[in-house]
Amino acid sequence: MKVRTTRHHWTALLLALATAACGSGGTGGAPATADLSAPKEKAGTLTMVTKFADPQYAPYFEKVVAAYEQANPKVDIKLEQVGDQPYKDKIRVLSASRDLPDIYFSWAGDFANKFVRAGLAADLTGQIGPGTSWGSTFAPAALKAFEYGGRNYGVPLDLDGKYMAYDKAVFAKAGVGVPKTFEELLTACDAFRKAGVQPIAFGNQYGWAALHFVTQLNAYDVPPATLRADYDPATGAFTDPGYVTALKQFSELVGRCGTKDANGLSHETAQAQFIAGKAAMHYVESVEFEVFVKANPPIDWDIFRLPAPAGAAGDPTALTGAPDGFLVNARSRNAGLAVDFLKFLSSKENAATMTKDFSWLSPVKGSATSENAAPQLISALDDMDKAGQFAVWLDTVTHAEVASAYLSGVEGMLSGSRTPEQVMAGVRDAAAKARKEVG
Hints:
Blueprint: H1 10-20, E1 44-50, H2 58-71, E2 75-81, H3 84-96, E3 103-107, H4 110-117, H5 125-128, H6 140-144, E4 147-148, E5 151-152, E6 155-156, E7 162-167, H7 168-174, H8 182-194, E8 198-201, H9 208-221, H10 224-231, H11 242-257, H12 267-275, E9 279-285, H13 289-293, E10 301-304, E11 319-320, E12 324-328, H14 335-345, H15 348-358, H16 375-386, E13 390-391, H17 394-397, H18 400-415, H19 420-438
Family: Belongs to the bacterial solute-binding protein 1 family.
Protein name: Raffinose/stachyose/melibiose transport system substrate-binding protein
Pfam families: SBP_bac_1
C-alpha cells in the first residue's frame, strides 16, 4: 500500500531546488533546454532513480530496464531504487548538489511543481502533450495531473483513485442502498448505527487518511479556478467559504459515520475491521484493492465514489487521487534517449504486466482487462476515465507549510480542540508564509 505521509521536510527541499535552479551537476555544461528529439542511434548511459525498492515492486522495473537494454545493446541504464522516505532525502541531496539523474520519480502536485519552477524538469509537451501520439495513449486526467502553466512535465506511471469500498452483504442486511449524494451517505450511516453496525471504518493515526476526505470535499465545495489558485503557493489565499463548508461536512461525516477516537487508530486496523465484516464501508485507494481481493475468507464487496453534497459549488466530477510518475532532467545530455525509454516503459504491454504483477492500474488505455485485473479495478479504471480531473492529495498538491497546517488542524478538529474556522485561519497563515517563500 502506498502510505501518504506528511511532507514537513518539503520546505528544505524547496530551498535545495531553488539553489539548484541554475544547473544540474551530473550534466556539466549541458544546455538549459534539453534536446528531446529521438536519437539517431540509441546509445549511451542513462541514470534513473525510483522509490520502488520494495521487493514486491523492484523486480518489475529491473525487468523493464533489462528488456530495453537487450533491445538496445548500446544503452546502459543505471537504475537505483530506494524506499519512500530515503527517496525524499536522496532527491533533496541530488537537487542541492546539482546532480539529478536523467530520469527521476515524482509525486504529482507541488512536489513535481517545485522541480518545474526550479528549471529542473524538462518540458515534455511536444512529446506527450495534447495532440501527440504518445499522449493519446494515456487517460487525460493522468496527464493533467503533471501539468504546470498549461505545459506537460511528467510521464504518469500508475493511477490511484480514492473510493468507498462497501460490504454488499452488510448493506443488504441493513436494507441500505448505495448512496448517490453526500446527504444520502449520512442517512445510510444513521441506518447502520441503528442496526448496530459501524458505518465507516476510519483510522487517522498518521493524519493523511483524514486529508483524503478533505481533499475530495474541497474539490466539491470550492470552484475549480479558486482551488487551483489556492493550491499554487504563489497565489494561495484560502478565503473561499467552501473550505470551511468542506471541514464542517467532514466533521459531520466523522460524527455520524466514523470511528470514535480515529486519531489513535491506524488505517490498517480500520481496514481489518472492514475485512472482518465489522464495518459497512472503508475509504481506500485503488492500490489497496488487492487486500480485499485476497481476503480469506473472501468478502463480497464493491466500490463507489464519496458522493458530492447537493448544490456544491465545486466540480462534482473531480476524483481524489493522482498518478505517480517520472520527470526528465531538463539538463540531461541524453534527454531524447530518456524519453524513448519512458515510451517503452509506458507501452501497453508493460503497463498490463504492471497491473498483473501487483494490481496497480496504469493510465495507459486498454492496459487493464478481466485477465489481469479484479472487477473492482476495472470499475475504478472506467470511473477514472470519466473524471473531469484528479483532486490531487492535499498533502502533496499544496505547499509544505499549508499541508502541515491542514494536517495538524484537522487532527485537532477530530480531537475537539479546533473548529473548522480555526483550522482555516491556520491554513491562511501558512499560505501567507508560502507566498513569501516562493515570492
